[in-house]
Design goal:
The protein is an all-beta fold. The protein has no helices and eleven strands. The protein is globular, with a radius of gyration of 13 Å.
Length: 123
């Protein structure tokens, strides 16, 4: 019912910026919490950020707090992740995700996944 397509990944130097986009389909898009996970080789899929039905409700992993900003435009069915001051440890495949729960937003139980987009930060 909900399809997610990410874009905006790429190769950047440390300290640079990228903006990831997630295009979502479905009439009930605004009823889902939307967020981002990332997964580096040999690592578990890691929570990055989530945004609720209202753009005022957001949460970030400690590792990205102050550097990343999540936003959404329900009228356009779009979710963004603005990534600033990128570090080599941010290198991962980034996945857009949708779930009915804002407070419990876990990789093991999300309802929908995008295909992922590669982000590589060089030093």
């Amino acid at each position: 019912q909900v399809q997610l397509v990410e874009s905006g990944g790429g190769l950047v130097q440390a300290g640079g910026s990228l903006r990831l986009s997630c295009a979502a389909s479905g009439r009930t898009f605004s009823r889902y919490a939307m967020g981002w996970f990332r997964q580096a080789p040999g690592k578990e899929r890691e929570f990055v950020s989530v945004i609720g039905w209202s753009s005022g409700n957001t949460r970030y992993a400690d590792s990205v707090k102050g550097r990343f900003t999540i936003s959404r435009d329900n009228a356009k069915n779009l979710v963004y992740l603005q990534m600033n001051s990128l570090k080599p440890e941010d290198t991962a495949v980034y996945y857009c995700a949708a779930d009915h729960s804002f407070s419990v937003f876990r990789a093991a139980s999300v309802d929908y996944w995008g295909q992922g987009t590669q982000v590589t930060v060089s030093s």
